[in-house]
Amino acid sequence: MASDKVTRENDEIEIDLRAFFLRLKTKWLTCILGLLLGAVLALGYSIFLVNPEYQSTAMVYLRGNGASSISIQDLQVGTQLTKDYEIIFKSRPVLESTIDELNLDMSTKELSDAISITNAEDTRILNITVTAQTPELAKDIANSIMDNGVQKVSEIDAQQPYVVETAIENAARVGMSRSRMTILGAVAGLVITLGYIFLRFVLSDNITSADDLENTLNVPVLAVVLDDPQMDFKKMAKNNKKGA
């Protein structure tokens, strides 16, 4: 009989895997209910408690000194300036201008947290990505930050940045989809249910087989008497028939 032994301090617990799978076979309905409950809870969480988020990205190119030839030193200086411009695009004046322009109900810190400005390595291109609750709002904020940032940079640098790409609406949601969250919830519900059944099986003191009786009392089992109500019913019916 397949079994696995787990030793904990001075106590030895023998787990009969065959008996566990037989117990699991009788609990198939409980497993299905746990799976469905996990899926329903995860779906409800994604619908009622998780706010959908969308992203939109605008792209600008920061011009150099206008020279026809570019040296390695120019590239290094341009990269350093790009890092400076990343800070300018998220500066308080730029954020306040966007809030006033779009009449946003948020603070400059909240708006700053919704903006991600990245720079591709060894380039002067800035990607301005905004995360918002609607695709339209994400697009409007990204374009406003781009316009106000370009204007602020032009006040500092004579070479005004060039708009490579304006932001557009992106209907794809950011983060985990509802279907994936539902599947993960179903799996989690099934795992929790299996764990509960396993713990009940391991911690149970009930004697369910001849092996349990032999291991508990340390005496051999000489015979097993079957208790089948259907057999008793058939025997009574047979005796009644003979008596008639």
Give an overview of the whole structure.
The chain is α+β, with helices and mostly antiparallel strands and 244 residues long. It folds into 2 domains: 3-47 and 177-243, no CATH class; 54-165, 2-Layer Sandwich (Alpha-Beta Plaits). It is built from 9 helices and 6 strands; from the N terminus they run ββααβαααββαβααα. It has helices at residues 17-26, 28-48, 72-89, 92-102, 108-113, 135-156, 178-203, 210-217, 229-243, and strands at 3-8, 11-16, 54-61, 115-119, 125-132, 162-165. The strands form 2 sheets. It has a 4-stranded antiparallel sheet. The radius of gyration is 35 Å and the shape is rod-shaped. It starts with a strand and ends with a helix.
Number of strands: 6
What is the share of helical residues?
55-70%
Unreliable segments of 5+ consecutive residues: 1-11, 67-75
Shape: rod-shaped
Distance linking N and C termini? 49 Å
* Beta-strand residue percentage: 15-25%
Major sheet details: 4 strands, antiparallel
Category from helices, strands and their pairing:
alpha+beta
Q: What is the strand arrangement across the widest sheet?
A: 4-5-3-6
What Rg do the Cα atoms give?
Answer: 35 Å
Count structural domains: 2
Number of helices: 9
Kindly report the average pLDDT value.
81
One letter per element, helices H and strands E, the order comes to: EEHHEHHHEEHEHHH
